[in-house]
Amino acid sequence: MTAARPVLDAPGTDGAAASSPRLIPYVPVLLFAPCFIIYAVLFIWPQLSLLATSFVDGNQWSVAHYQRFLGDGYYWELLGRTLFLGVITTVITLVLGLPVAYLLARMQSRWAGFLLVITTFPLLVSAVVRSFGWMVLFFRDGLVSKLVVALGLASPPFQLMYTMSGVVIALAQVLLPLMVLTLYGVFRSIDRDLELAAMSLGARPSLALWLVTLRLARGGILAGSLLVFSLAISTFATPSLVGGARAHVMSTAIYEQTIELLNWPFAAALSSILLVFVLVLALVYGRVLEGRGQTEARP
Amino acid sequence: MSSPWNIDQLDRRAFMAALAAVGAGSLLPASAEAQGADFKGRQLLSSGFGGSTMDIIQKAAFDPFDAATGAKSTQVPMQSAAALARMKAEAGNPQIDMYQFSGGQEAQAKSEGLTEPMKSVPNLANVPGGLKDPDGHWVTWAVIAEGIVYNKDKIPTPPTSYKDFFKPEYKGHIAFPAITNGFGMDFLVMLARTFGGGEDNIEPGFAALAKLKNETIFKAASDLPGLFGQGDIWIIPYDTGNAFKTAQSGLPVAFATPQEGSPAVPITSCIAKGAKNADVANGAINYLLKPEAQIAIAQGMRWSASNVNTKLPAELASEIPAVSQLAQLDRAKINANRAAWTERWNREIAR
Amino acid sequence: MEIVIENLAKVYGNAHAVRDFSVTIAKGEMVALLGPSGCGKTTTLRMVAGFIKPSAGRIVVRGRDLTGLPPHKRDTGLVFQNYALFPHLTVAENIAFGLRRRGVPAAERDTRVANMIATMQLTGLADRLPRQLSGGQQQRVAVARALVINPSILLLDEPFSNLDAKLRESTGLELRRIQRELGLTSIFVTHDQNEAMAIADRIAVMNGGAVEQIGSAVDIYERPRTRFVADFIGSANFLSATVEARDGNVVTLRHGLGVSVLPVEGQAFDKGRSVTLMVRPECVAIHPAAAEAGLGTIETISYQGSSAHIFVKLRDGDRTMLVERHGRELAGLEVGKTVDLNVKAQDLTLFAA
């Protein structure tokens, strides 16, 4: 039977850390260099030579390939279809992914980790294999095509195979995990107490979600959307396998020009045009984020 | 133009085998026949068609060649079009010694100066003039006959003509390959011929194809089992080899030779200019031209032989169109128009 | 009564996070829920706020049963441990948030926000974002945001734990002043006994999901009802003792420091029983003694300015007693010196077993 609770304070441990790292000016440069060199050799240089290729016609410099693209409604339609694919896929993954990511991020149960793994599991399977899976379901006798007919959404004979709708469905499934992962990270970083605070101040749960959590997640939602959009407009395997000849998009056209028709300059021009769209989007996105940064901040 | 033989494009096993061959090939024991042990320890890399096609060719020609000479031959799966692109990209420093083409790429490869003439290939003499390059840059070692592949249960009387694709009772049950698939291009040309045109006058072909534009269009041979397996695709313009393969999978599928003729697709090989193992490649090509190899290939895939000395067994010969039934397409004209027709096809047929 | 909480309980599977929590709080009273982490104090607070659904019991505020109501209908002002300020809204917008939800007209809203900004000494900061504020300022915004809606009850979850020690006391007293002025009924959760004792009218000491004792700071410090309370609040010396004799409600106890006579009630203190005595360090008298006569030896002296903690190792065993003396009354007391210790019977608290 004893004695007192020790009241002694632990000896001070808050002194200056043993040695604060003194940064030698060139250390950051050295750390950055390998990445930059790889980036330069494997991305910037090929990208520049691609751009250069797109301005070659025969043996001379020319904008003929761009003129051909811009002056032809067919290619505008191709570009429009590609951008539409990107937009619709982004919207679908956002609508499906947002609630899933939110619930996973807020879930306290020990199943949450398991469910997250399940959600992202498709990422471990290549898009080609997943697209083959969809093909089985999309042929006329496939489960999904039959279901669409059974629900009265289409009249037989109907198949999702070789249609743009099929590509959208397959692509949404392929890209959904990326959206969920991105949004999951975003929601995890938003303090749940903020929503509770809003509720205690009189906001209905849905309003608290809207006014606080979704407002704070805006940057992450934009990031996830940009990621999915850029992948959707540049992906090749799914449109090629599921869409076949009819659902022609920029990526399959680039492939066709490169591999089938060996018209590399025109393929390079198509690639550059697609790249410009992605870059413009990324810049706009950056702007939006910047603007947001002035009035808002993440917790 | 893509090869129809891309069934298992990404054949991992073959790819790994290629890697293994590069790494460990020199350690492999070479069992050599007395007369040809001169490639002992040498490696040969060839492009290949992938999947079971590649395996059959390996067993029919490359394996016996390796056994006889001590070489180690590996095929790297690659679509014909992609193979030509690779050949172009590696011009001057070829990593792949020899190429196999199914879409007429050999002519373009020669014209772009990517090939070198074959040397000391004794069997070259047994190949008829139309099936080899006059300068010896490429040689046909098999011929694929195209025609009509149909569902025997739905169409009890074998089709006889390309005109059968326009029978009203088949409407909604037709599929045809995209123009980027070599057979799709040949289908267009054959339709043009059927309706009064040809390589020089493609209009009738596009006019006829436009009537089929609402039918199913597919891109790759790998879609074939899916299409026939459904039961509601009855008739497809394709080749003997895939008809045979699909029938082997248990589907009620047969091949019919149209009266307009079966377009012949030459399967060729050529040697990359400056290939380090050009001598080995020459030896391997000689083996591809051997009657034994060509019979094995015909048995495995129903591809026709090119060596005049190859005598196919009777039951095999009956399943493959006779030489008299083959339609020789003007590949040079087709190649010259490929880009324009592809553009037009994309706009008028696929849209 | 302003707030009545009856038999509140929360069960997770087999674990009782809170069991049988009952308290009645008068208007304007401030009650602290005090206990170690995991004692159920935060769960209790969150049940009152409506974030956690109780397994049993009810919560009645101003005669209105809140038990089944969602948080946004409870009219509670809540200050979070991390303040939970909306990072994308300015100070003024944060404060106005609750008023907007209540549909308060813009003019009135602006006035109330401005008044609150003045009251909480946030003048000039109205257009700042939370991340541009110091910790103390953020804390005041959190309080302002909770107060501006005139809540029927103010709940505070460890409101001072993120402030540095110097700010903590002044902020606490300031909050107490405002709470008194507004006559707000309040519950706050803390693990810091000094904070609870300095600010709260009454303290509920919780342990393992249950309330050990509710009472004023003096009650709890001087008359702890359980060993846990005695040990948790302040410092305590525990002595084992034996009942030597019992005469009615008076017992004679023998313990390490001698013999004491105490009044008792109950069966647990019959003759021969072993019991435990608790004495606060400041209630132990210490004197230098002759080497052979003393009860123990000074092991350590921890000088803290206004006071000094003296650890005395008793001769009969390894027990150490903590004695607190005024910082200037250390004459004759040095490490290694033999000392005598005395306690007065009225300073002893007796626990069965």
Automatic annotation (TrEMBL), chain A:
Give the principal location in a single coarse category.
Answer: membrane
Q: Please verify whether the record's keywords include Methyltransferase.
A: no
**Keywords for the protein's UniProt record, in alphabetical order:** Cell membrane, Membrane, Transmembrane, Transmembrane helix, Transport
Location relative to the cell = Cell membrane
Which terms under GO biological process does the entry name? transmembrane transport
Coiled coil spans: none
Q: Which family does it belong to?
A: Belongs to the binding-protein-dependent transport system permease family. CysTW subfamily.
Protein's name in the database? Putative spermidine/putrescine transport system permease protein
What lineage does the source organism belong to? Bacteria, Pseudomonadati, Pseudomonadota, Alphaproteobacteria, Hyphomicrobiales
TrEMBL record, chain B:
One annotated GO molecular function? thiamine pyrophosphate binding
Instruction: Tell me the keywords, alphabetical order.
Output: Signal
What does the entry give for GO biological process? thiamine transport
Read off the Gene3D superfamilies from this record: Periplasmic binding protein-like II (3.40.190.10)
Name by which UniProt lists this protein: Putative spermidine/putrescine transport system substrate-binding protein
Among PROSITE patterns, the record links this protein to: TAT (PS51318)
Query: GO CC annotation: what is one?
Result: outer membrane-bounded periplasmic space
* Coiled-coil annotated spans: none
Keyword Signal on entry:
yes
The record, for Pfam families, names:
SBP_bac_6
Tree of life domain: Bacteria
UniProtKB/TrEMBL annotation, chain C:
Gene Ontology biological process terms from the UniProt entry: quaternary ammonium group transport
Q: Does the keyword Zinc-finger apply?
A: no
Listed under GO cellular component are: ATP-binding cassette (ABC) transporter complex
Descriptive protein name: Putative spermidine/putrescine transport system ATP-binding protein
Instruction: State the superkingdom.
Output: Bacteria
Q: Which residues form the ABC transporter domain?
A: 3-233
Q: Which InterPro entries match?
A: AAA+_ATPase, ABC_SmlMolc_Importer, ABC_transporter-like_ATP-bd, ABC_transporter-like_CS, Mo/tungstate-bd_C_term_dom, NA-bd_OB-fold, P-loop_NTPase, Transp-assoc_OB_typ2
User: Does Nucleotide-binding appear among the keywords?
Assistant: yes
Recorded hits in Pfam families, A to Z, give: ABC_tran (PF00005), TOBE_2 (PF08402)
* GO MF assignments: ATP binding; ATP hydrolysis activity; transmembrane transporter activity
Q: Which family does it belong to?
A: Belongs to the ABC transporter superfamily.
Keywords of the record: ATP-binding, Nucleotide-binding, Transport
